[in-house]
Amino acid sequence: MEHRIERIKKQLHAQSYKLTPQREATVRVLLEHEEDHLSAEDIYLLVKDKAPEIGLATVYRTLELLSELKIIDKINFGDGVSRYDLRKEGATHFHHHLVCMECGTVEEIVEDLLEDVEAIIERDWGFEVKDHRLTFHGICRNCRSSNQSK
Questions:
Q1: Are residues 8 and 75 in the same domain?
Q2: Number of compact structural domains in the chain
Q3: Quick one: which residues bind Fe cation (predicted)?
């Protein structure tokens, strides 16, 4: 974790920002809960345990900055709540998600499934793709199994 925090600190410094104690507490929460797709409010409650003096507005500003710098991604799974996801180290694209419409679980697909589609878009439309997001909404394996056994 310390290695990853140091790299994020360098990313911030490269853009003339500092890793303040409040930003560091926010980053630590994101690292500790990397698989959880937390909302700003969830992050705030967890950060408050580490830094009781921090305010919700500070957490929001930190999340927006980290998002602008592409350290995290702001995502929405269609439920009206923005969630935050750390970019995987070395990732050139946002990763994909599978969202279960019954139990709400979210699975991540790390491989880039759209490389061929990007090449077609660039070739046929002359459009330079910088990033993409792909979210599938459906029924997860566990819910399908429990529905079939009923």
A1: yes
A2: 2
A3: 115, 132
In terms of DSSP H, where are the helices of 19-114?
21-32, 40-50, 56-68
Residues 10 and 34 in one domain: yes
Residue 102 assigned as binding residue: no
Pick the closest to residue 76 from 56, 57, 97 (CA basis): 97
Q: Which residue type is seen at 80?
A: G
Give the list of residues 6+ apart from residue 117 with CB closer than 8 angstroms, or none.
none
Terminal CA-CA length for the chain: 44
100 is in an annotated binding site: yes
pLDDT digits (tens, 9 = 90+) for 31-85: 999 888 899 999 999 999 988 999 999 999 999 999 998 888 888 877 788 889 8
- Does residue 41 have a known ligand-binding role? no
Of 42, 68, 91, the residue that ends a domain is 91
Take residue 114 and report the two structure tokens written for it.
């759209």
Q: Is the pTM of this model over 0.85?
A: no
